[in-house]
Write a structure and sequence with these properties.
The N and C termini lie far apart (70 Å). It is globular, with a radius of gyration of 26 Å. Among the domains are: 41-241, no CATH class; 473-538, no CATH class. The strands form six sheets. The protein has a 21-stranded parallel beta sheet that branches. An eleven-stranded parallel beta sheet has the order 3-6-9-12-16-20-23-26-29-33-37, with no helix packed on it. A three-stranded parallel beta sheet has the order 21-24-27, with no helix packed on it. Strand 1 (30-35), helix 2 and strand 2 form a beta-alpha-beta unit. The chain is mainly β and 538 residues long. It contains four helices and 41 strands.
Length: 538
C-alpha cells in the first residue's frame, strides 16, 4: 500500500473508532427523572431538589424524551393515582409511544433532604403506590368502593425494569371488568408478538382485589424475569393467579426466582399462574384456589421451592396444570378433595427428588395424580407419605424408581412442638438422621436448594438429598463464607456471631447450624471454636 493510502486508511480507522465510541455513548445516554412528594413545589424532575411531587406528572414527562432511555427515581412515601378528585379510573401509567427506548422505574430512594438522597432501602424508605384514595382500607378488602381499579401499568418496546416498589390497594368493587395492582409489559409488533423485555425485582405486591385474567401483578414480554419479590394477600375474584401472572413469547422461558407467595387467592393458581416459565427457589404458603393449583398453576418447570399449607377446591392443593418438571421441592400440609399435592393433565412431567408429606385429600384421593400422560414421564427419588399407593398415573407409563415412604424428619414442621401459624418460624430442613438425605436421583439434572446451595458430596458418591433443602457440608464445614483459602477465620467468626444472635435457623445462616439441629447455639459454637482456634478445618 502506498504511504498516503496507508495514512488515509489509518485516519479512516481512527474516525470509525471515534464514531463507534460516540454511537455507544449516545446509546447509553439516559434521562433521570426524580420524584419526591416531600420536595419543594414546582420542580421539573431534574434533581432531588427539583423533583416532581406528582408521580403521574413525572411519568407523562417521558413523552417529551421519546427515543431516549429514561430512568425514574422515586423517593420513599405513599403515592396515589388521584387523591384530589378521587377518580378511580386513573392509574400511574407510562405514555403510549412507538419508542424502542429502555425504561427503568426505581423506588425506595431516601430522596430530598437525606444525607445521601440516592441511597436505597427496600424496608426503611419504601416507595408505596396505593389505590386507597381515601386512606381508609380495612381488613378482608373492606372500604374498597373508593379505590383505584388499576394502580400502575408500565410498558415500553425496549427493556422495562421495575425495581423497589410496593403496590397495593387495587379494587374490583363494584365488579369491574379490569382491576389489578400492577401490569409490567412490553410492546408488540404488527403480528402481535411482544418485542421488549421486562425485569421486575425487589417489589412487594399486596392487598389487591382483582378481576379476570390479571392478578395482583401481571408481567409479560418477549423475555421476562421476576426476582426477589413478595406477593401477599391478593385476591383474584374470577381469574388466574392471585399474586402473579407471567407470560413470555417467541419460545423464551420466563424466569421467576426467589419470590414469596403468601395468602393469595384465585380461581386457578392461588399464588401464581405461569405460562412457559421456570420457577425456582420460591416459597408458596397459605394460598388458595377455587378449583385447581392452590399454590401454582401453569406450564414449565418448578424447582427447589417450598409449598406449605396451600389449598385447592378441586385438585392440586399445591401444584396443578401441565408442568414439565417438578424437582427438589418440599410439598407439605396441602389440602384438596383430590390430588392433595400435585395434579397434572395431558402432561408427562419429570417428578424428581421431592418430599411430599402431611398432605391431605378430603375425599380420600391420591397425593399425586398424573392423568393422560402423552409420553412416559419420570417419578424418581421422591419421599412421599404413603408411598406409591397414594399416586395415580394414566396414559403412557412413567419410569418409577427409587422412591421411599420414610418420615423425612424435618427440623420443625407445622403441628410440631414450638411451631406456630407463621411459616417463618418453621424449619423444613432435614435432621442429620433424615432418610431423605441421599434419597434423590442424581441422573437427570444438577440440583440447587432453596438457599442456593448446589448439592456437594465431596468424595462421597451418594445421591442428592430430597426436598428443597440440602445438608450441604463442604470438606471445611466451619468455613461459613466459603471463600479462598478456605480457612476458618475472622470473616467466618462474624458470620457465626450474627447467626448466633438470631438463635434459630432460619432466619439464621443455616450453614452456622453446624450440628444441624435447627438451632445456632452453644453446641454449634463448641464445634466452630475448634476450627477457629486452629484457623483450619478440624
Amino acid at each position: 500500500m502506498q504511504p498516503h493510502l496507508s495514512r488515509l486508511a489509518s485516519r479512516l480507522t481512527a474516525a470509525a473508532a471515534m464514531l463507534a465510541v460516540a454511537t455507544i455513548a449516545h446509546a447509553a445516554e439516559k434521562r433521570v427523572i426524580y420524584v419526591d412528594k416531600s420536595a419543594p413545589p414546582g420542580g421539573d424532575g431534574t434533581s432531588w431538589e427539583k423533583a416532581f411531587q406528582d408521580l403521574g406528572v413525572a411519568l407523562r414527562s417521558i413523552e417529551d424524551y421519546r427515543g431516549g432511555n429514561s430512568e425514574v427515581r422515586i423517593a420513599d412515601g405513599t403515592y396515589t393515582p388521584d387523591v384530589v378528585n378521587g377518580d378511580r379510573d386513573r392509574s400511574f401509567s407510562t405514555p403510549i409511544t412507538s419508542s424502542a427506548a429502555n425504561l427503568s422505574i426505581l423506588g425506595s430512594f431516601a430522596g430530598f433532604g437525606a444525607p445521601d438522597p440516592d441511597k436505597r432501602d427496600y424496608v426503611a424508605t419504601r416507595t408505596i403506590l396505593s389505590g386507597d384514595l381515601n386512606n381508609d382500607d380495612g381488613p378482608e378488602f373492606t372500604n374498597r368502593g373508593d379505590n383505584s381499579a388499576i394502580v400502575a401499568r408500565f410498558w415500553t418496546n425496549g427493556r422495562l425494569t421495575v425495581d423497589g416498589l410496593t403496590v397495593r390497594g387495587a379494587s374490583a368493587e363494584p365488579p369491574a371488568r379490569w382491576a389489578y395492582g400492577i401490569s409490567c409489559g412490553a410492546g408488540s409488533d404488527l403480528f402481535g408478538r411482544w418485542t421488549g423485555s421486562v425485569l421486575m425485582t425487589n417489589c412487594t405486591v399486596e392487598d389487591n382485589d382483582t378481576m379476570q385474567s390479571v392478578a395482583g401483578a401481571s408481567v409479560y414480554g418477549a423475555v421476562v424475569e421476576v426476582a426477589d419479590c413478595t406477593f401477599r394477600g391478593n385476591r383474584n375474584r374470577d381469574g388466574l393467579g392471585g399474586g402473579l401472572t407471567v407470560a413470555s413469547s417467541d419460545g423464551n422461558w420466563a424466569l421467576v426466582q426467589r419470590c414469596v407467595f403468601e395468602n393469595n387467592q384465585a380461581t386457578y393458581g392461588g399464588g401464581a399462574y405461569v405460562e412457559i416459565a421456570r420457577l425456582e427457589r420460591c416459597v408458596f404458603v397459605g394460598n388458595k384456589a377455587k378449583f385447581q393449583g392452590g399454590g401454582y398453576f401453569g406450564t414449565g418447570e418448578v424447582r427447589s421451592s417450598l409449598f406449605a399449607g396451600n389449598q385447592a377446591g378441586s385438585s392440586g392443593g399445591a401444584i396443578a396444570g401441565r408442568p414439565g418438571m417438578i424437582a427438589s421441592c418440599s410439598i407439605v400440609a396441602s389440602l384438596a378433595p383430590s390430588a392433595s399435592a400435585i395434579s397434572t393433565f395431558n402432561a408427562s412431567p419429570w417428578i424428581l427428588n421431592n418430599i411430599l408429606w402431611g398432605n391431605e385429600s378430603s375425599l380420600g384421593g391420591p397425593t399425586v395424580q398424573v392423568l393422560q400422560c402423552l409420553w412416559p414421564g419420570i417419578f424418581s427419588g421422591n419421599v412421599i407419605e404413603g408411598g406409591l399407593a397414594v399416586t395415580e398415573f394414566s396414559g403412557a407409563t412413567p419410569l418409577i424408581e427409587g422412591n421411599s415412604a420414610s418420615n423425612p424428619r424435618f427440623i420443625r414442621e407445622a403441628g410440631q412442638p414450638l411451631s406456630t401459624s407463621d411459616w417463618r418460624t418453621l424449619n423444613y430442613r432435614l435432621r442429620p438422621d433424615s432418610p431423605a438425605i441421599g434419597a434423590g436421583t442424581p441422573r437427570f439434572y444438577l440440583p440447587v436448594d432453596l438457599d442456593g446451595s448446589v448439592f456437594y458430596s465431596g468424595s462421597d458418591p451418594r445421591s442428592p438429598d430430597a426436598g428443597c433443602y440440602f445438608i450441604t457440608r463442604s470438606n471445611c464445614f466451619a468455613d461459613l463464607d466459603r471463600s479462598w483459602p478456605f480457612l476458618v477465620d475472622d470473616s467466618d467468626f462474624q458470620l457465626f456471631a450474627a447467626a448466633y444472635d438470631l438463635t434459630i435457623a432460619p432466619p439464621a445462616n443455616p450453614l452456622a447450624d453446624l450440628n444441624n439441629d435447627g438451632l445456632v447455639d452453644d453446641a454449634d459454637f463448641s464445634l466452630f471454636a475448634v476450627a477457629y482456634d486452629a484457623l483450619v478445618c478440624p
